[in-house]
Amino acid sequence: MALLASALRRYLLLLAQEHLEFRLPEITSLLSLCGGQFSGEQEIRVNSPFWILDIPSEEMARGLMKRTVCAKSIFELWGHGRSAGELYASLKNYPTDKMLPYLQSDSTYKVHIHTFNKTLTQAQKIKKIDALEFLPFKGKVNLKNPEHIFWILEDYGMNPNDVPEEPIHLYFGRWIADGQRELIESYSVKKRHFIGNTSMDACLSFIMANHGRVKPNDVVYDPFVGTGGLLISSAHFGAYVCGTDIDYNTIHGLGKASRKNQKWRGPDENIRANLRQYGLEKYYLDALVADSSRPIWRKGMLFDAIITDPPYGIREAPRRMGSQKETVKSVERSTENHFFVSSSYHLSDIFFDLLKFAAEHLVMGGRLVYWLPIYRPEYTEEIIPRHPCLKLISNCEQMLSSHTSRRLITMEKVIEFKDQDENSYMLDGQYMPYRGHNSFREKYFSGVTKRIAKEEKDNQK
Length: 461
Description:
The chain is an alpha/beta fold and 461 residues long. It contains 14 helices and 17 strands. Keywords: Cytoplasm, Methyltransferase, RNA-binding, S-adenosyl-L-methionine, Transferase, tRNA processing, tRNA-binding.
């Protein structure tokens, strides 16, 4: 254990201040994907932008940053403290032999200052840099293209209305790598060729792929594929992707467009075109018109990850194939004279079918990542659907309104699926709590109706 501790190197992670609940599961998943495990020097302050991590190697730190969209940068941590004096003492205790390779006379460097929750003047920055003159810098300063970049990072707390005069924590380190924040803009849904009413935000799509530990040559499946937004993020990381959806028009890129001021979809608006737009077409296997409640796949372990956003009835109604013998909700006609009869598909049944499918068709160690809608006043952990073959890895909340949210659920297959156990998990008394999901749409819109009524009443005063 002592040898393992000595092999670990200390790093400082600078995180983005959005999707706070998603950051720790993403970093933990990516470290395990790189062959490491999460090990923090102290209890992680979930909302803080600064985390100190113990990582075995710089190579693993770089591997982490090649994937994360939640972190901005990572640094080899040379010193830290709760005051300038503590920081300087910490730096003086840092092993000189670890510093010297980056401070040689034939090298170039610069020092950058980052402050959280406070803005410094240029004079203040220069003063803080000059205070580090005790460090054995021998190289030349190069502000445009230095070989080594060092950062002073100062934390002035989380309250913008109560900013302290002095930082509550200071860090100094050598910059290693930046994260993949630029993917959020380059893959923005606003720029995408083919979108729908429920196309997933690019940042969340990449977070889902990272929670699912998607890696090159994986096969990733989305049973509610829609316009294929979740396939794009997995394909970007080198996975082969496929999906199914009950909507014929969406799969084939037909019918009414979702963009403002566009009435009908163009001739090349489809999932394949989205992958082609980003140079990822070679990773696209196919998308099929299929009902997720009915088996179409051969038995056995087929997928390395299942990443999906099931319909929960706000913008798109949950549907499955019906028959004339069933209570028919609607008969819909798509283009090219395609008809299908749809019947109600309760949310609880969607989740049961999804977990059962994942338990059977995921490889061992494969992950299921999906969104679960929640009516917050009634939420307890007991309503999270479970399956004996799947272990709950993380459960992160994203607010939708004051009374509703959706939770990103990540599960991992840890037990091999057996046919005789197919429905056993439905018999242990846990089935009834999930039934509450069936009324999510009514509860969501009841809140909207109440808010509108309140606003109208306030406007009349």
